[in-house]
Design brief:
This protein is an alpha+beta fold. The chain folds into two domains: 3-167, Aminopeptidase (3-Layer(aba) Sandwich); 190-277, Alpha-Beta Plaits (2-Layer Sandwich). It is 34% helix and 22% strand. It has helices at residues 3-16, 18-30, 39-52, 109-125, 148-154, 214-228, 231-237, 270-277, and strands at residues 56-59, 63-69, 76-82, 133-139, 166-167, 190-199, 203-204, 239-247, 254-255, 258-267. The strands form three sheets. A five-stranded mixed sheet has the order 1-2-4-3-5, sandwiched between helices. Strands 6-10-8 form a three-stranded antiparallel sheet. A two-stranded antiparallel sheet has the order 7-9. The mean pLDDT is 95.
């Protein structure tokens, strides 16, 4: 088959399965699961793979590797999709909104997984048209550290046959539907998690002189870091320091003993990453 005919075949078949892929995505969106607990998600993906008649194996507990083509050939590339969701309560009012309280596919992993399954449908149809094989990696635990990618690599997901490159995508709502975005050079940043514990002395709020309140310290720390790394500087230096969680379990009349801060640090350059550590 010529490249022109093959392209037409791919486009035609992709259009014919579009509604099925949308249905898969909406099912995944309705039943999200948090990192490393994607048991039903993994089971659903496996059911779809059996339906398409594509061989697969489980890895890293809830992860999956599907293979299309001839693994005995030296040429092998991989396609990767993450499958976990976030601990967020969905507030959207649509017929496929999350049915799992406090969990939502807010980062688009339902789309990534559905797109990977759609790609498998297409590749299976043209399996005899390429020389080599394609591994499709369904990665668990992308939202936490150490992530599922680390576990899959340790379990030799990229070996036998050895993967020469990996292709992945990420949803980007700001981009017009039907368009793809590309950028030369690094794009997705490294991710480090930040955890800070501030220990004080608890007490009654009516007698603050007898306590050592950790909450003002936590607030000042976040304020000082924000002053040191304002948005303009972060954009210029291609770094991110963001805090999304502050917990101090006191009450209106109780000063807590401890305050917990959690956030994320992201960089596109290892030297900058190491500098931020110091």
């Amino acid at each position: 088959m010529t490249h022109t005919r093959l392209k037409k075949e791919i486009l035609s078949y992709s259009e014919s399965i579009l509604n099925e892929v949308i249905s898969i995505r909406r099912h995944l969106h309705q039943y999200p699961e948090i990192s490393f607990k994607e048991y039903n998600t993994s089971k659903y993906i496996q059911e779809q793979l059996k339906k398409i008649k594509v061989p697969f194996k489980q890895i890293a507990n809830t992860g999956i590797i599907a293979t299309i083509g001839n693994p005995s050939k030296k040429k092998c590339i991989a396609i990767r999709a993450d499958i976990d969701a976030l601990p967020i309560q969905e507030k959207n009012n649509c017929d496929y909104a999350s049915k799992n309280t406090g969990i939502m596919h807010a980062c688009g992993h339902d789309v990534h997984t559905a797109a990977a399954l759609g790609t498998i449908m297409v590749l299976k149809r043209i399996e005899n048209q390429f020389n080599g094989c394609v591994k499709i990696l369904f990665q668990p635990g992308e939202e936490v550290l150490p992530g599922g990618a680390t576990l899959m690599i340790k379990e030799k997901a990229l070996q036998n046959p050895k993967v020469s490159c990996i292709l992945a995508q990420h949803v980007f709502p700001d981009l017009e539907a039907g368009k793809l975005g590309f950028r030369e050079g690094p794009y997705m940043a490294s991710t480090d998690e930040i955890y800070i514990s501030i220990k004080g002395k608890g007490g009654h709020a009516a007698m603050p002189q007898r306590a050592n309140n950790p909450i003002p310290v936590a607030a000042q720390l976040i304020s000082e870091i924000t002053k040191e790394y304002p948005l303009e500087r972060m954009i210029k230096e291609e770094i991110i320091l963001s805090f999304g969680k502050v917990i101090a379990n006191g009450a209106t009349n109780v000063i807590p003993e401890q305050a917990e801060i959690a956030g994320t640090m992201r960089t596109l350059n290892q030297n900058k990453r190491e500098k931020l550590y110091t």
